[in-house]
Amino acid sequence: MSEYDVVVIGGGAAGLSAALVLTRARRRVLVVDSGAPRNAPAAHMHGFLSRDGAAPGELLAIGREEVKGYGGEIADEVVASLRRDGSRFRVQFADDRPVWARRLLIATGLRDELPEIPGLRQRWARDVLHCPYCHGYEVRDRRLGVLGGGPMTAHYTQLIRQWADDVVLLTPSGSLTEAQQEELTATNPCRPSPALPYLHRARVRLLTRRTFRAPPPSVF
Fold this sequence. Notes:
The chain is α/β, with parallel strands linked by helices. The chain is built from 7 helices and 9 strands, in the order βαβαββββααβαβααβ. Helix 1 runs parallel beside helix 2.
């Protein structure tokens, strides 16, 4: 059969959680997942109760089995198009196979838009990290770098100090106000000045570990 009560597009933690509730409510459910989760580069996940330190794929495998245990179906497919078809939705897969659903639940999640810095994508989720609450404990008490330039750079740099006393801020010259620079250098060393222009020019090579003899082992 190719008609479902609900088609869930996105088979990450959110999509599988929704599918689990729906299958337990005795709905006919199909979860469609392309197999490209946002956290694919990460070897471990942290802060998830009962699965702290587990590989992300392990959580998804368990979730899939739970959904299938209540009669849910999983399709490893890519959705090419959606359209209304009377009282239903027509879900077209990339291989041209269609299915129909009374309702759609979109759980495709987020996508990281990375700066165009050579070497960064290859190090992403390894030693270039996006979330101190996810990864900060594992790199605590080391010399850490912060790749800045946005409006929250100063605030985010102060946040990183919860995990390390020695923080190097890599940000374009002129991106911080004088008050922000004074705030950042008022306590334990977070060195945005006078090395800011130099660090800004060197940050690409820093991420590929070619510039400094002892670069920060991890950058947020």
